[in-house]
């Protein structure tokens, strides 16, 4: 009877290339079906076994708009650049809710997909990217609510609406950058998962959601430009409501978004090969 010896070493070792590549688009394209599958999985899991389902994507910004309108629009009398305050608030809350939910989901995505990461190879960047893309579904639903409110207040669209896809792309890229960075940190430091909701809550108050940048004294207004979401949110209001664009704030937001995304991919790639060992 012939006996067989098992090999002492694996026949094939799958590992990242030693030559670091900032963003291997060819590799990501090869796994595009997995990206679609993970995105669709995140969409289904998010509202699984919930009574209201996807309606939560509309209720969240709706109730926040009502609260902001009562406390800031009516009681505090916060200015809204000549726009009805409910419309002003919702115009900021829709992109902000997408950003906040996207970085929360992306930040926890690697830990939540540990069973995949430890078993099979695929570009790990796909996991936080899928979490971000799943948030676009909620964004579209909330945007429908914003469109209804615009019709109610008889807002007339201008040619500036053509800039809206650029703003959505900026929001998605900035969400991907922050979410990717947080996901890599969360694998090593699980405190990130608890600190992230608190940081997002603080971030809301410095992002021109509640009040316009014009309400800030000029000598402090430059600080808002260091927050890309502030310029992006005001860009949404300009595109939707025909307000003047602050091109300086948008340009700074675009540059900072690119820098954050590049750094996030770099930081992600540095620790990617150790994910399976420490997750």
DSSP E strands, number:
0
Compute the number of structural domains. 1
Structural class: mainly alpha
Q: Give me the number of helical elements.
A: 13
Helix content: 55-70%
Largest sheet: none
Uncertain runs:
none
C-alpha termini separation: 44 Å
- How much of the sequence lies in strands comes to under 5%
Radius of gyration, CA atoms, in whole angstroms: 22 Å
Name the helix and strand elements from N-terminus to C-terminus, one letter apiece.
HHHHHHHHHHHHH
Q: Could you tell me the mean pLDDT?
A: 85
Outline, from the CA principal axes?
A: globular
Q: Could you give the topology of this structure?
A:
Layout: H1 25-30, H2 32-46, H3 56-75, H4 85-107, H5 109-112, H6 114-117, H7 126-152, H8 164-188, H9 191-204, H10 218-225, H11 228-241, H12 247-272, H13 275-278
Helix pairs in contact: 2-7, 3-4, 3-7, 4-7, 4-8, 4-9, 4-11, 7-8, 8-11, 8-12, 11-12
Task: Describe what is shown at a glance.
With 279 residues, the chain is mostly helical. The chain has helices spanning 25-30, 32-46, 56-75, 85-107, 109-112, 114-117, 126-152, 164-188, 191-204, 218-225, 228-241, 247-272, 275-278.
């Amino acid at each position: 009877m012939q006996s067989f010896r098992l090999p002492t070493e694996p026949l094939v070792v799958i590992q990242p290339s030693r030559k670091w590549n900032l963003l291997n688009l060819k590799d990501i394209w090869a796994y595009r079906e997995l990206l679609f599958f993970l995105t669709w999985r995140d969409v289904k899991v998010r509202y699984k076994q919930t009574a209201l389902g996807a309606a939560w994507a509309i209720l969240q910004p709706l109730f926040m708009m009502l609260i902001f309108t009562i406390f800031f629009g009516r009681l505090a009398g916060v200015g809204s650049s000549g726009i009805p305050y409910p419309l002003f608030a919702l115009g900021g809350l829709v992109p902000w809710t997408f950003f906040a939910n996207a970085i929360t989901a992306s930040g926890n995505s690697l830990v939540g997909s540990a069973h995949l990461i430890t078993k099979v190879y695929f570009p790990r960047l796909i996991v936080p990217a899928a979490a971000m893309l799943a948030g676009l579904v909620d964004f579209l639903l909330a945007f429908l609510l914003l469109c209804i409110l615009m019709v109610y207040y008889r807002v007339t669209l201008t040619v500036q609406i053509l800039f809206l896809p650029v703003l959505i792309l900026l929001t998605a890229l900035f969400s991907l950058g922050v979410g990717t960075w947080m996901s890599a940190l969360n694998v090593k430091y699980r405190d990130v998962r608890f600190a992230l909701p608190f940081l997002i809550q603080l971030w809301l108050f410095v992002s021109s959601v509640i009040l316009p940048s014009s309400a800030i004294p000029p000598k402090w207004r430059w600080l808002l430009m260091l927050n890309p979401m502030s310029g992006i949110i005001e860009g949404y209001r300009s595109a939707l409501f025909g307000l003047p664009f602050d091109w300086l704030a948008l340009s700074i937001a675009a540059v900072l978004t690119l820098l954050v995304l590049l750094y996030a991919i770099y930081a992600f790639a540095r620790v990617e090969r150790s994910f399976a060992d420490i997750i």
